[in-house]
Amino acid sequence: TQDFAGLKALVTGGASGIGRATAELLAARGAQVAVLDLDPSSVDKPLLGHQADVTDDASVRRAVAAAVADLGGLDVLVNNAGIGAQGTVEDNDDAQWHQVLDVNVLGMVRTTRAALPHLRESSHAAIVNTCSIAATAGLPQRALYSASKGAVLSLTLAMAADHVREGIRVNCVNPGTVDTPWVGRLLDAAQDSAAERAALEARQPTGRLVSAPEVAGAIAYLASPLSGATTGTALAVDGGMQGL
Ligand code: NAD
Protein backbone atom coordinates (compact mmCIF):
# COMPACT_ATOMS: atom_id res chain seq x y z
CA THR A 1 0.00 0.00 0.00
CA GLN A 2 1.04 3.57 -0.60
CA ASP A 3 -0.47 5.20 2.49
CA PHE A 4 2.47 7.64 2.67
CA ALA A 5 2.27 8.71 -0.97
CA GLY A 6 3.09 12.41 -1.21
CA LEU A 7 4.21 12.64 2.43
CA LYS A 8 7.68 13.84 3.44
CA ALA A 9 9.41 12.41 6.47
CA LEU A 10 12.57 13.00 8.49
CA VAL A 11 13.94 10.21 10.71
CA THR A 12 16.68 10.94 13.25
CA GLY A 13 19.07 8.12 14.05
CA GLY A 14 17.90 6.70 10.74
CA ALA A 15 21.19 5.08 9.72
CA SER A 16 20.80 2.06 12.02
CA GLY A 17 18.37 -0.21 13.82
CA ILE A 18 14.84 1.05 14.48
CA GLY A 19 15.42 4.34 12.66
CA ARG A 20 16.72 2.64 9.55
CA ALA A 21 13.85 0.14 9.48
CA THR A 22 11.43 3.06 9.87
CA ALA A 23 13.00 5.10 7.08
CA GLU A 24 12.91 2.08 4.76
CA LEU A 25 9.29 1.24 5.62
CA LEU A 26 8.06 4.81 5.10
CA ALA A 27 9.89 4.95 1.77
CA ALA A 28 8.41 1.58 0.73
CA ARG A 29 4.97 2.99 1.55
CA GLY A 30 5.48 5.94 -0.77
CA ALA A 31 7.01 8.66 1.45
CA GLN A 32 10.01 10.76 0.53
CA VAL A 33 12.38 10.19 3.43
CA ALA A 34 15.40 12.05 4.78
CA VAL A 35 17.63 10.60 7.48
CA LEU A 36 19.51 12.66 10.06
CA ASP A 37 22.36 10.79 11.72
CA LEU A 38 25.85 11.21 13.18
CA ASP A 39 27.05 9.06 10.29
CA PRO A 40 24.60 8.81 7.37
CA SER A 41 27.23 7.39 4.97
CA SER A 42 25.58 3.94 4.92
CA VAL A 43 22.21 5.39 3.85
CA ASP A 44 21.34 4.60 0.23
CA LYS A 45 18.84 6.02 -2.25
CA PRO A 46 15.97 6.67 -2.21
CA LEU A 47 16.73 7.78 1.39
CA LEU A 48 18.44 11.17 1.65
CA GLY A 49 21.20 11.25 4.26
CA HIS A 50 22.02 14.35 6.32
CA GLN A 51 24.83 14.51 8.87
CA ALA A 52 24.09 16.08 12.25
CA ASP A 53 24.71 15.56 15.95
CA VAL A 54 21.47 16.05 17.88
CA THR A 55 23.49 17.50 20.77
CA ASP A 56 24.62 20.37 18.53
CA ASP A 57 21.80 22.83 17.90
CA ALA A 58 23.50 24.52 14.94
CA SER A 59 24.10 21.21 13.16
CA VAL A 60 20.48 20.16 13.79
CA ARG A 61 19.16 23.41 12.34
CA ARG A 62 21.40 23.06 9.29
CA ALA A 63 20.44 19.42 8.67
CA VAL A 64 16.69 19.98 9.18
CA ALA A 65 16.77 22.98 6.81
CA ALA A 66 18.70 20.97 4.20
CA ALA A 67 16.37 17.98 4.55
CA VAL A 68 13.25 20.14 4.23
CA ALA A 69 14.75 21.82 1.15
CA ASP A 70 15.49 18.40 -0.41
CA LEU A 71 12.04 17.05 0.43
CA GLY A 72 10.13 20.22 -0.44
CA GLY A 73 8.38 20.33 2.95
CA LEU A 74 7.84 18.16 6.01
CA ASP A 75 4.86 16.12 7.26
CA VAL A 76 6.43 13.56 9.59
CA LEU A 77 9.23 13.85 12.15
CA VAL A 78 10.46 10.64 13.78
CA ASN A 79 12.59 11.54 16.80
CA ASN A 80 14.49 8.31 17.22
CA ALA A 81 18.21 9.02 17.81
CA GLY A 82 19.20 7.75 21.22
CA ILE A 83 21.96 6.13 23.24
CA GLY A 84 21.93 3.68 26.13
CA ALA A 85 23.41 3.61 29.62
CA GLN A 86 23.63 0.88 32.22
CA GLY A 87 23.90 1.02 35.97
CA THR A 88 22.37 2.35 39.17
CA VAL A 89 22.55 5.99 40.27
CA GLU A 90 25.93 5.18 41.81
CA ASP A 91 27.42 3.93 38.57
CA ASN A 92 26.99 6.95 36.26
CA ASP A 93 28.74 10.24 36.95
CA ASP A 94 27.36 13.71 36.16
CA ALA A 95 29.10 13.80 32.79
CA GLN A 96 27.34 10.58 31.73
CA TRP A 97 23.99 11.94 32.95
CA HIS A 98 24.47 15.13 30.98
CA GLN A 99 25.52 13.22 27.87
CA VAL A 100 22.59 10.76 27.80
CA LEU A 101 19.98 13.40 28.65
CA ASP A 102 21.53 15.68 26.02
CA VAL A 103 21.11 13.04 23.28
CA ASN A 104 17.90 11.32 24.35
CA VAL A 105 15.87 14.30 25.61
CA LEU A 106 17.33 17.59 24.39
CA GLY A 107 18.10 15.96 21.05
CA MET A 108 14.36 15.54 20.48
CA VAL A 109 13.71 19.10 21.65
CA ARG A 110 16.24 20.49 19.17
CA THR A 111 14.97 18.56 16.13
CA THR A 112 11.36 19.32 17.06
CA ARG A 113 12.10 23.04 17.46
CA ALA A 114 13.75 23.12 14.04
CA ALA A 115 10.94 21.08 12.42
CA LEU A 116 7.83 22.74 13.90
CA PRO A 117 7.65 25.74 11.53
CA HIS A 118 7.64 23.29 8.60
CA LEU A 119 5.18 20.84 10.21
CA ARG A 120 2.73 23.72 10.70
CA GLU A 121 2.57 24.03 6.90
CA SER A 122 1.49 20.37 6.55
CA SER A 123 -2.09 19.10 6.57
CA HIS A 124 -0.93 15.65 7.88
CA ALA A 125 1.62 16.66 10.50
CA ALA A 126 2.78 13.98 12.92
CA ILE A 127 5.68 13.56 15.31
CA VAL A 128 6.59 10.12 16.63
CA ASN A 129 9.16 9.80 19.42
CA THR A 130 11.02 6.59 20.16
CA CYS A 131 10.57 6.09 23.89
CA SER A 132 11.02 2.73 25.70
CA ILE A 133 9.31 0.45 28.17
CA ALA A 134 12.12 1.67 30.44
CA ALA A 135 10.05 4.86 30.87
CA THR A 136 7.55 3.06 33.09
CA ALA A 137 8.83 -0.47 33.80
CA GLY A 138 11.26 0.20 36.66
CA LEU A 139 14.04 -1.87 35.10
CA PRO A 140 17.10 -2.70 37.23
CA GLN A 141 20.50 -1.29 36.23
CA ARG A 142 18.93 1.35 33.97
CA ALA A 143 18.54 4.42 36.23
CA LEU A 144 19.89 7.01 33.79
CA TYR A 145 18.41 5.45 30.65
CA SER A 146 15.01 5.07 32.34
CA ALA A 147 15.06 8.68 33.52
CA SER A 148 15.84 9.84 29.98
CA LYS A 149 12.95 7.83 28.53
CA GLY A 150 10.61 8.91 31.33
CA ALA A 151 11.35 12.44 30.19
CA VAL A 152 10.61 11.45 26.57
CA LEU A 153 7.22 10.09 27.63
CA SER A 154 6.32 13.28 29.54
CA LEU A 155 7.64 15.41 26.69
CA THR A 156 5.45 13.49 24.23
CA LEU A 157 2.30 14.15 26.31
CA ALA A 158 3.17 17.83 26.77
CA MET A 159 3.95 18.34 23.08
CA ALA A 160 0.72 16.60 22.12
CA ALA A 161 -1.23 19.09 24.25
CA ASP A 162 0.72 22.09 22.98
CA HIS A 163 0.33 21.35 19.28
CA VAL A 164 -2.99 19.54 18.86
CA ARG A 165 -4.81 22.74 17.95
CA GLU A 166 -2.22 23.41 15.26
CA GLY A 167 -3.06 20.07 13.66
CA ILE A 168 0.19 18.43 14.75
CA ARG A 169 -0.16 15.02 16.41
CA VAL A 170 2.54 13.74 18.81
CA ASN A 171 2.81 10.12 19.95
CA CYS A 172 5.53 7.73 21.01
CA VAL A 173 6.37 4.05 20.78
CA ASN A 174 7.62 2.06 23.75
CA PRO A 175 9.75 -0.78 22.41
CA GLY A 176 10.87 -3.68 24.58
CA THR A 177 14.13 -5.42 23.68
CA VAL A 178 14.69 -4.94 19.98
CA ASP A 179 17.18 -6.85 17.85
CA THR A 180 19.27 -3.92 16.56
CA PRO A 181 23.02 -3.23 16.27
CA TRP A 182 22.72 -1.58 19.70
CA VAL A 183 21.64 -4.84 21.37
CA GLY A 184 24.23 -6.62 19.21
CA ARG A 185 26.93 -4.41 20.76
CA LEU A 186 25.70 -5.24 24.28
CA LEU A 187 25.77 -8.96 23.48
CA ASP A 188 29.23 -8.71 21.90
CA ALA A 189 30.49 -7.18 25.13
CA ALA A 190 29.25 -10.16 27.16
CA GLN A 191 31.62 -13.03 28.01
CA ASP A 192 29.44 -15.58 26.23
CA SER A 193 27.29 -13.65 23.79
CA ALA A 194 25.32 -16.71 22.57
CA ALA A 195 24.37 -17.61 26.17
CA GLU A 196 23.54 -13.97 26.90
CA ARG A 197 21.29 -13.83 23.82
CA ALA A 198 19.54 -17.04 24.88
CA ALA A 199 18.98 -15.59 28.38
CA LEU A 200 17.63 -12.38 26.90
CA GLU A 201 15.25 -14.31 24.64
CA ALA A 202 14.11 -16.47 27.55
CA ARG A 203 13.04 -13.31 29.40
CA GLN A 204 10.69 -12.37 26.54
CA PRO A 205 7.11 -13.65 26.86
CA THR A 206 7.24 -14.42 23.13
CA GLY A 207 10.57 -16.24 23.47
CA ARG A 208 12.21 -13.90 20.98
CA LEU A 209 13.37 -10.31 20.68
CA VAL A 210 11.21 -7.69 18.99
CA SER A 211 12.39 -6.96 15.43
CA ALA A 212 13.24 -3.47 14.18
CA PRO A 213 10.62 -3.70 11.37
CA GLU A 214 7.97 -4.46 14.03
CA VAL A 215 8.80 -1.19 15.80
CA ALA A 216 8.90 0.57 12.43
CA GLY A 217 5.36 -0.69 11.77
CA ALA A 218 4.07 0.92 14.96
CA ILE A 219 5.90 4.18 14.18
CA ALA A 220 4.47 4.13 10.64
CA TYR A 221 0.95 3.68 12.01
CA LEU A 222 1.33 6.64 14.38
CA ALA A 223 2.87 8.73 11.59
CA SER A 224 0.19 7.91 9.03
CA PRO A 225 -3.20 9.51 8.43
CA LEU A 226 -4.66 6.12 9.58
CA SER A 227 -4.08 7.32 13.17
CA GLY A 228 -5.43 10.79 12.43
CA ALA A 229 -7.44 11.04 15.67
CA THR A 230 -4.66 9.72 17.93
CA THR A 231 -2.36 12.05 19.84
CA GLY A 232 -0.61 11.89 23.22
CA THR A 233 -0.38 8.08 23.32
CA ALA A 234 2.42 5.61 23.96
CA LEU A 235 2.17 2.40 21.93
CA ALA A 236 3.95 -0.60 23.47
CA VAL A 237 5.90 -2.80 21.02
CA ASP A 238 7.40 -5.14 23.54
CA GLY A 239 6.22 -8.69 22.85
CA GLY A 240 4.11 -8.58 25.99
CA MET A 241 6.91 -7.54 28.36
CA GLN A 242 4.99 -4.61 29.81
CA GLY A 243 3.26 -5.44 33.04
CA LEU A 244 5.42 -8.46 33.84
P1 NAD B 1 21.15 1.95 17.11
O1 NAD B 1 22.39 2.22 17.91
O2 NAD B 1 21.11 0.75 16.20
O3 NAD B 1 20.79 3.24 16.23
C1 NAD B 1 20.81 4.53 16.80
C2 NAD B 1 21.16 5.54 15.72
O4 NAD B 1 21.14 6.84 16.34
C3 NAD B 1 22.57 5.34 15.13
O5 NAD B 1 22.52 5.38 13.71
C4 NAD B 1 23.36 6.51 15.70
O6 NAD B 1 24.39 6.98 14.83
C5 NAD B 1 22.27 7.56 15.90
N1 NAD B 1 22.68 8.54 16.91
C6 NAD B 1 23.15 8.29 18.16
N2 NAD B 1 23.51 9.44 18.75
C7 NAD B 1 23.24 10.43 17.87
C8 NAD B 1 23.44 11.85 17.89
N3 NAD B 1 23.99 12.46 18.94
N4 NAD B 1 23.04 12.57 16.81
C9 NAD B 1 22.53 11.95 15.71
N5 NAD B 1 22.34 10.61 15.62
C10 NAD B 1 22.71 9.88 16.69
O7 NAD B 1 19.99 1.88 18.18
P2 NAD B 1 18.45 1.38 18.14
O8 NAD B 1 18.38 0.17 18.96
O9 NAD B 1 17.93 1.38 16.75
O10 NAD B 1 17.77 2.56 18.98
C11 NAD B 1 17.02 3.60 18.39
C12 NAD B 1 16.10 4.20 19.45
O11 NAD B 1 15.29 3.15 19.98
C13 NAD B 1 16.81 4.83 20.64
O12 NAD B 1 16.13 6.04 20.99
C14 NAD B 1 16.65 3.82 21.74
O13 NAD B 1 16.64 4.41 23.03
C15 NAD B 1 15.30 3.22 21.40
N6 NAD B 1 15.06 1.89 21.95
C16 NAD B 1 15.84 0.82 21.58
C17 NAD B 1 15.56 -0.42 22.15
C18 NAD B 1 16.38 -1.65 21.80
O14 NAD B 1 16.20 -2.68 22.50
N7 NAD B 1 17.22 -1.64 20.77
C19 NAD B 1 14.51 -0.57 23.06
C20 NAD B 1 13.74 0.55 23.39
C21 NAD B 1 14.03 1.77 22.83
From TrEMBL:
Extract the Gene3D superfamilies matched here: NAD(P)-binding Rossmann-like Domain
**Quick check: keyword Transport in the entry?**
no
Q: Which Pfam families match?
A: adh_short_C2 (PF13561)
**rRNA-binding is among the record's keywords:** no
Reading the lineage from the top rank, the first entry is: Bacteria
What UniProt keywords are attached to this protein's entry?
Oxidoreductase
The cross-references to SUPFAM superfamilies, in alphabetical order and at most eight, read:
NAD(P)-binding Rossmann-fold domains
Spell out the InterPro entries in the cross-references.
Answer: NAD(P)-bd_dom_sf, Sc_DH/Rdtase_CS, SDR_DHRS6-like, SDR_fam
Any GO MF annotation of the entry: oxidoreductase activity
Family of the protein in this entry: Belongs to the short-chain dehydrogenases/reductases (SDR) family.
Protein name listed in UniProt: SDR family oxidoreductase
